[in-house]
Amino acid sequence: MRMIDFFDRGARMAHDRPCMIAGDAVRTYSEVKARSNAIARGLIADGFDPGAHAAVLSGNALVAFEAILGILRADGVWVMANNRASVSENAYLLDLLDVDTLFVHSETADRIATFRSECPNIRRYVALDRPFDQADAFLEDMLVDSDEPVPQRRSGAPDELGFLANTGGTTGRSKGVMLSNGNWQALISSLVASMPMKQPPVNLVAAPMTHAAGPLALGSMALGGTVVILPKFEPKAVIEAIEKHRVTYMFLPPTAIYMLLAEPDVRHADFSSLEYISYAGAPMSLDRLKEAIEVFGPVMNASFGQTEVPMCCIAMPPHE
């Protein structure tokens, strides 16, 4: 199975249920699937080859997830890019990982001039959220609508390259990690095994989608879940979103959990919908973990892993 086939599995289960919510914008699974088809057809019409590499340089945004799904549906290789990294680090990795097409949010449009000089293999710069002069094209102008399915252009074999993730750079410069369709299946399987869910999840993306929150959100879509997107982590906004959307699952690093616990009204909020708060990326103080269980309930799920695994190989679910 290709990575996009997992999304399509979720779309078959959910169809007209919400796939993504961002502010007042709500997209159903059928709408997101149609958008990913149109993006894929636009990429193919623009000369995007099977197996070509494409990246999305953006903060948390609904259209950024749509672009990723379009890349995968065009049988491209998704390259994870971090909009919070420095311009020089971005340029180094985009060039190292042989990116052909780069989708860029307007907030990072000023980086394109550097990329044009340092990343000669980038063939096309696509503006994500609005037109701007630095880009070659605007996403909405590239869409090619059709009721016909996008032809599959690669085999989808388990060992076929699916996406490229970046290491953290702890022991040197960041490197690209080649992750296959089989690796993606293992990630989905580990998600399901470590956090059995009573119903399709309502997944809150409050941590950066450029890190673990992004792939885990795509994993939630494979289960027919709803992904609620916040543009950035703000404790008050997180609490409000949990209550409003009846969030069942979210990923946060320990530092963000500490900030939530420090919010004045946190002990008066309704967290009864939560089934799991998954945390990783750094050790968590035992005292703060006990406090989190007291405030949020027995929902804390610790995971351990590394980019190459990918991301999760050991978990301590709430009952442990």
Count of distinct strands: 15
Name the structural class.
alpha/beta
CATH class of the largest domain: Alpha Beta
Spell the H/E element sequence: HEEHEHEHEHEEHEEHEHEHEHEHEE
CATH topology description of the largest domain: Rossmann fold
Whole-number count of domains: 2
CATH structural architecture of the largest domain: 3-Layer(aba) Sandwich
Oligomer: single chain
Low-confidence stretches: none
Radius of gyration: 19 Å
Q: How many alpha or pi helices?
A: 11
Key structural traits:
single chain; Rossmann fold; 20% strand; 320 residues; seven-stranded mixed sheet; 11 helices; eight-stranded mixed sheet; alpha/beta; 2 domains
Could you outline the blueprint of secondary structure elements for this entry?
Blueprint lengths: L2 H12 L3 E5 L2 E4 H17 L7 E5 L4 H12 L3 E4 L6 H10 L2 E6 L7 H7 L5 E4 L9 E2 H4 L18 E6 L9 E5 H14 L7 E4 L7 H10 L3 E4 L5 H11 L3 E4 L1 H9 L13 E4 L6 H11 L3 E5 L9 E3 L4
Parallel strand pairs: 1-11, 3-4, 3-5, 4-8, 5-6, 6-7, 10-11, 10-12, 12-13, 13-14
Antiparallel strand pairs: 1-2, 8-9, 14-15
Helix pairs in contact: 1-8, 2-3
